[in-house]
Amino acid sequence: MTPQLDVAVVGAGVAGLTTAHELRRAGLTVRVYEEQPHVGGRMHSFRHDGWTVDTGAEQISPHGYRATWELLDRLGVPRGDVPRIGAGVATWRAGRAHPGVADRRAVLTGAGLSPPARADLARMLAWAARRRAGFDGDRPERTPLGTATVAEFAARYHRDVHDYLLQPLCGAFFGWDTARSTAAPLVSLLLAVGPAAGWRTCRDGMDLLARRLAGGLDVVTGRAVHRVATGRDGARLHLGDETVTARAAVLAVPAPVAARLHAAPAPEEAAYLAACAFTPVLKVSCLLDRPLAPACGRPAYILLTPRAEDRVLSCVIADHVKHPGRAPAGKGLLTLMADPRTVPGLLRAPHTEVVGRLTAAARRYVPDLPSAGRQYFVHAFTHGLPEASARALRLRPAFMARGPRPVEYAGDWVMLRPSSEGAVRSGALAASRVLARLGRRIPRDEESIRETA
């Protein structure tokens, strides 16, 4: 049977859309299938009565996101549409917010750390700086930290470094448990992105990149793929009452979903897919009738709430501080992120229960929240963020060394780099592997963002 498509991509998140974008530029016929009614995946945003609500990712950095910026430039996105946030990150300790987290001045200002911990933070930063060349964000399995967990790495230093810095960062930004997740990807990312003061957001929602990519592609939303099998001519996608044939398929979905969809992955693929566990993520968006935010000595758009202080929340995000366009004039928008250990018990709870639990905890930081709350939205991701386990690090080299095959994979889990940069790089890599097998070249201006195995 003659294949209907050159390539079928499953998943319209940033990884899948990047894959399709590059393959289409190479002259192939590509179609993207997305189970949800919208594109963006974990970088989706929606609009409601003048509010712009990011359901997933919150920011990008001017450093460490080279492939993301090059893709934005190619799509014609002005830098003005990705402005600086202009506020920092604070952490809660002993009844108040301490600004300056992820800031170079933290060793002087404290940022919630005790004086002995500041000295150990300086020692940790000096250690990382001396070994910076050994931290490659695209190859976390090769760093000097090996498979040490975040907790094991932090044990070298004062307890505060873990309790009031590394654990809050892991919990808020990745949904990680420091006793399970390895330190190498975290340290690699922190070294790459630099201080929080330079971080940026998208003016009209974090789905900007996904919307721009999808605008030039054949994307079918609301269409679930149930199974993908390989054959003599490529791949077959089973979509319930329809079968689609393609010369190649790319599964741009979380690793557990890819393992379920792919009928017969090769042994090294199956092993890595099984090792790439995902942590669930749960958050509540609070639409407010006035711009409330946690009180802080300096402007902060994120307040980290360490597990040592709070077992319900991991952070409070003031989205209208992140960018004033997230809320109508005179209104506010807060995001309440659940602590990773709280999420499993609430993931399938009624939304009223989730809202009640998280807003009750948030009153400690924003006392007027109950009187200002206008409407609440719950966002739950069963497969929230890839957790870089020791087993995944050990198995990744064999997975990355495999030859091109009819079914490829894309997603930040491929890179063990939970970010849009990881998604873009994995998409470029998947496209290059497909083109190598089908005998087509990537256009020259795309080679710069292609990740090489």
Task: Report on the architecture of this protein.
Helices cover 34% and strands 22% of the residues. It is an alpha/beta fold. It folds into three domains: 144 residues, 3-Layer(bba) Sandwich (FAD/NAD(P)-binding domain); 160 residues, Polyamine Oxidase, Chain A, domain 2 (Alpha-Beta Complex); 91 residues, no CATH class. Strands 1, 2, 7, 8, 9, 10 and 16 form a seven-stranded mixed β-sheet that branches. Strands 6-5-12-13-14-11-15 form a seven-stranded mixed β-sheet, with helices on both faces. It is globular and about 65 Å long. The C terminus is likely disordered.
Class derived from helix and strand content: alpha/beta
Looking at the overall shape, the CATH architecture of the largest domain is: Alpha-Beta Complex
Arithmetic mean pLDDT:
93
Q: Spans with pLDDT under 50 lasting ≥5 residues?
A: 444-453
In oligomeric terms, what are we looking at?
single chain
Radius of gyration: 22 Å
Q: Between the first and last Cα atoms, what is the distance in angstroms?
A: 33 Å
How many separate helices?
A: 17
Largest sheet: 7 strands, mixed
Name the CATH homologous superfamily of the largest domain: Protoporphyrinogen oxidase, mitochondrial, domain 2
Task: Name the CATH class of the largest domain.
Answer: Alpha Beta
CATH topology of the largest domain: Polyamine Oxidase, Chain A, domain 2
How many distinct domains? 3
- Beta content: 15-25%
Q: In which range does the helix fraction lie?
A: 25-40%
Shape: globular
Number of distinct beta strands: 16
Domain Amine oxidase: 14-435
Protein name: Amine oxidase domain-containing protein
Organism: Streptomyces minutiscleroticus
GO molecular function, one term: oxidoreductase activity
